[in-house]
Specification:
The chain is α+β, with helices and mostly antiparallel strands. It has nine helices and 13 strands. Strands 1, 2, 3, 4, 5, 6, 7, 8, 9, 10, 11, 12 and 13 form a 13-stranded mixed beta sheet that branches. Helix 3 runs parallel beside helix 4 and helix 8 packs across helix 9.
Length: 299
């Protein structure tokens, strides 16, 4: 793939495996905000890259901004469609990173710290967004006192109810139904999370018609920390304190570690800043506000 490099003082350029130390130094300035790209970086070995890394150099050895772009999921003769973008650093430099990617194509999703995310989207040409949300990043380093519940890893027998709950969550949050719009793709994605031991559930004997009372997913997970999301309590089980209790349990599990995984020092999550009930729930579990984020899904 050939890239056009912008010839001016703040130039954006693709990065190579040999640049990993510089990428890491920049991202580690705010570990909580950069758990996702740091987790990607940790998994890259040798010359293998999980996607594209773009950067703007401040000095010969110091980056001013960096963006991770997941591999393209489609293309046309003159336009490439890339996946997810996470940008961090000087917003002016992030704008240049957006311009560089925009020379070759477009992105499906842009997320990250708000100023950086907005700047990258602006550099990309401010493409139409299907969804644009102001999120807040919350971090838990110590679980608050309070009720906990038993959690277990979801099994393949749980696929259908977990997939239904995941679709219901998106319907409530975004107004879209994945089971209706792309059922096979949705089921495969939920199955992948279950097989990868990323989905945890709490079951209840009180309602045989809806035995799963709480579900949560663990996303990126590295020695830097873990991020959780996809939290959902069915309507028939709400107002019982299950969400806060489940959050305390999963955070305790991740922070303490287990025989199969090392403990982490932090757990983060993203929440729509208008979702005040969810924010109250997370604070009860021990989460504290860390940063302003932005989430954009392109049309």
């Amino acid at each position: 793939m050939q890239w056009t490099i912008i010839s001016q003082p703040m130039s954006a350029t693709p990065l190579e495996p040999r640049h990993r130390p510089a990428i890491r130094r920049l991202l580690e300035r705010d570990v909580a905000a950069n758990l996702f790209p740091l987790s990607v970086l940790e998994n890259e070995k040798g010359d293998r890259q999980e996607g594209l890394w773009l950067g703007v150099w401040k000095t010969e050895n110091e980056l001013d901004a960096v963006a991770f772009v997941s591999l393209r999921y489609g293309s046309g003769p003159d336009h490439l469609q890339f996946g997810n973008v996470a940008a961090y650093g000087n917003p002016t430099a992030c704008h240049q990173l957006g311009r560089l990617l925009g020379e070759k194509g477009s992105a499906k999703m842009i997320f990250g710290p708000r100023a950086e995310s907005d700047a990258f989207w602006s550099g990309l040409g401010e493409p139409h967004c299907q969804f644009c949300y102001a999120h807040q990043l919350y971090e838990c380093c110590q679980v608050a006192d309070g009720k906990r519940i038993d959690l277990s890893l979801a099994q393949l027998d749980d696929l259908q109810p977990v997939a239904t709950m995941a679709s219901d969550m998106l319907l409530e949050d975004l107004g879209v139904s994945r089971l209706r719009d792309s059922p096979l793709q949705h089921l495969l994605w939920v199955r992948h999370r279950i097989v990868s031991a990323k989905t945890w559930i709490h079951t209840s004997d009180h309602d045989p018609t809806q035995p799963i009372a709480f579900v949560i997913n663990v996303g990126c997970h590295s020695h830097y920390g873990a991020q959780v999301g996809g939290t959902f309590v069915p309507p028939e089980h709400r107002n019982q304190g299950l969400a806060s209790a489940g959050m305390r349990t999963i955070c305790h599990t991740l922070l303490r570690g287990s025989p199969t995984q090392k403990p982490v020092t932090r757990v983060t999550l993203l929440v729509n800043e208008e979702n005040h009930s969810a924010i109250r729930c997370y604070k009860k579990a021990g989460f504290e506000e860390r940063a302003l984020f932005r989430f954009r899904l392109m049309g």
